[in-house]
Amino acid sequence: MKTTYHKANTRGKADHGWLKSQHSFSFANYHNPERMGFGKLRVLNDDIVQPNMGFGKHPHQNMEIISIPLSGALSHKDTMDNKREITVGEVQVMSAGTGLQHSEFNDSKTDEVSFLQLWIQPETKNVTPRYEQKKFDQTKQKNNFQTLVSPQNNIIVDSLWIHQQAYISLGNFDEGKTINFKLQDASNGIYIFLLEGEISVANETLETRDAIGISDATTVEIQTNKKSKILVIEVPMN
């Protein structure tokens, strides 16, 4: 088993006033040659957008982009004629493929929006751009990992799909639980990002927003020291 431990306070930081962002991996003006991603996971941004503010229209190409709202609502528009609001409990996926443009905006006059955005490198380039979002039954995350995203050729029931052999799972666990997380593919690695709480994994203690990358393992034991909300991103390492 190989591990890479990332404390929350070691992430890259950006404060633009209207946007506060923390970068698990090199992004924009934050560059750390030792943190260029984890396998095919290239970006994990933890963003807070102020009321009546947002990202103007901007381009993407050849990337699988996943957005997960944590609080508030995010308005989405793109050049595929999608115009949707994304709220807590929903997940959005975009395959940028040959190229698209989109914008993300907080339409609220009073409330911040907090969301995660992940970029995963695709296994096939220059695919036709696509967009999908889904509302998940969060009760299924109670002391259980619910699969939010899975590969196109191995779609887990009720999940969204992307062009990569990757899986994204989310669970809410009570204190004192032991979870044996089994990887879908033994050659993959997992990046565990603790949204809330405290857990023990691979002889490390993770607190809120800490993360650990693990490879060369087929099953990973997670112990919850406190009530915890855990995101697990399984990706190919090559």
Chain-wise SSE layout:
Blueprint: E1 2-6, E2 12-15, E3 19-23, E4 41-49, E5 54-60, E6 64-71, E7 73-78, E8 83-87, E9 90-95, E10 100-105, E11 113-120, E12 130-135, E13 145-151, E14 160-162, E15 167-173, E16 178-182, E17 188-196, E18 198-201, E19 204-207, E20 211-215, E21 219-224, E22 228-236
Parallel strand pairs: 13-14
Antiparallel strand pairs: 1-20, 2-3, 3-4, 4-11, 5-10, 6-9, 6-11, 7-8, 7-10, 9-12, 13-15, 15-22, 16-21, 17-20, 17-22, 18-19, 18-21
Give the tally of structural domains. Answer: 1
Quantity of strands, as a count? 22
The main sheet orders its strands as 1-20-17-22-15-13-14
Supply the CATH class.
Mainly Beta
Output the number of helix runs.
0
The major β-sheet equals:
7 strands, mixed
Enzyme class: oxidoreductase
EC number: 1.13.11.24
Family: Belongs to the pirin family.
Cofactor: Fe cation
